[in-house]
Amino acid sequence: MNQERFDYRTGILGSPAEVDAAEWNALLARQGQPTPFLRHEFLAALHDTRCATPDAGWAPQFVTLTDERTGRLAAAAPVYLKGHSYGEYVFDWAWADAYKRNGLDYYPKLLCAVPFTPVQGTRLIAEDEIARRHLAATLVAFAEQADVSSLHVLFPTADDAAALTGLGMMQREGVQFHWLNDGYRDFDEFLSTLEQKKRKNIRAERRKVREAGVTLRRVRGEDIRDEDWRFFSRCYRQTYREHYSSPYLNLDFFRSIGASMPENLLLVIAEYEGKPIASSLVVYQRDENGGGTLYGRYWGALEHVPCLHFETAYYQPLEFCIEEKLAVFEGGAQGEHKMARGFMPTVTRSTHWLAHPAFSDAVARFLESETNHIHSYMHELNEHNPFRDPDHRDP
């Protein structure tokens, strides 16, 4: 092997602005699963609108490898120094509590992830497998040399996870619910594949929304007006208010991605008597060879209408997937109720390294037990397949 291929210069960057956006996006486009959330525009928007900054407990420490021969970006990873575990969706609060009870500091920790975004995709953005392996080794070395308790890589691809576990990181599994497009001609054809009870319930839910006098419209990113963003932001904040929580994102963030990546955005707006009352925002990515993925992200309502959440956040996006021939609809974190609407369980991954040997051993034992539970849970879920054909969508 040519040793020259390993001649990389490492960078630890305190802001997305410190890396060239065109180079970052060009590298991302070469990946197997280039989600829109890894686009430079998305990460920069999080930083520039102060949603993911040191003041919010998200201090960027982006790791880059530059090829010394060409001067081009060869690999990169979105890494943050975290002072808490909010906005991650892979929960390690119990680990942090165990550290505290033993008089140890769990924070700061290093996190490789997209803030506030439980979406699986590449985390080790690299020009080839050599660069990917070198980047993985650089991340682990960075954690070992830094004054941190741990390193966590959330929602990586299987290839990324393999590169990281090959260096000794522990793998953790989770479950999400994804809908797969079987080439349906329309929503009714999709419904025809479900069990009668599930089909009947969905039709009843949609009918309740219609009979309540609510109408729906879909607005593509380039057509979203500022008044639409202001309304959506109110809905988004209302969702957090109802859960007695603080929203992670702000209006400036939504305006920013609306301006910089409109081709990836779809806003669904529900109206009653001409007045908007609810909305959802989904993000999608088209594949070069056709198909693509839609990601359910944010939802909120200012008025309560029975079943409006399902119509706005699921059924309208599902119709959009069918019309646009998108292959997958990833429903986001949690939610067994999604199975009744045709979403099937899918395993997600994260990888973890802990500096403290005793805690690392304890977490390894916990993850072994948890993984067995996840596999049993997946088997149980698949036993309740919502499709008429029991083998349909069984991964």
TrEMBL record:
Lineage summary: Bacteria, Pseudomonadati, Pseudomonadota, Betaproteobacteria, Burkholderiales
SUPFAM superfamilies: Acyl-CoA N-acyltransferases (Nat) (SSF55729)
The protein, known as: Uncharacterized protein
Protein species of origin: Paraburkholderia caballeronis
